[in-house]
Amino acid sequence: MNICSVLYFSFLFKKVFLPIFISKEWIEFYTVPGFDVMNSLNLIPLIRMNTSDIRNFVLNIILFIPTGFIYYYFSQSKSKTILYIFMTSVIIEIAQFIGNYTFQFMWRITDINDVIVNVLGGLIGLSIIHILISTKLFKRKVLSYKK
């Protein structure tokens, strides 16, 4: 499970933060004239939505389902798992905002909707692992393996 966790969080990091455009050409390409970092921030849920947002919602949910598995596996606590999922999502969004502020161009959008759907994905993962735990085979082979 440890190797799977490292692989998953490496994949998550890649999808959330990379590429980081450092070359002058990329920065000039992505620079928005009159850029204001506040334009990359959405704190009002479920507004400014279009059809691509539905796709992003589904992908974010799928991306965060493993966090429910992984955090529960290591914490064995529903409340800690939910807190860790929430904190992971918030930290990602804060880091994206700091990246926009630092680079002064539209690197990523900081969006409350992402926090909502990321937590939803993590909760789905937590629910799935609880359903799987209810079967004796899963409990015996996976959770007892940790000890």
Which key features would you list for this structure?
147 residues; mainly alpha; two-stranded parallel sheet; 6 helices; 2 strands
Rg computed from alpha carbons, rounded to a whole number of angstroms: 18 Å
Number of domains: 1
Q: Spatial order of the strands in the main sheet?
A: 1-2
Residues in β-strands, percent: under 5%
End-to-end C-alpha gap: 12 Å
Instruction: Report the major sheet.
Output: 2 strands, parallel
Q: What is the approximate shape? A: elongated
Give the tally of β-strands.
2
Characterise the protein shown here.
- There is one protein chain.
- This protein is mainly α and 147 residues long.
- It has one domain.
- The chain is 73% helix and 3% strand.
- The protein is built from six helices and two strands; from the N terminus they run ααβααβαα.
- The protein has helices at residues 2-17, 24-30, 51-75, 78-103, 112-133, 136-146, and strands spanning 41-42, 110-111.
- Strands 1-2 form a two-stranded parallel ribbon.
- Helix 3 (51-75) packs across helix 4, helix 3 crosses helix 5 and helix 4 (78-103) runs antiparallel to helix 5 (112-133).
- It is elongated, with a radius of gyration of 18 Å.
- The mean pLDDT is 79.
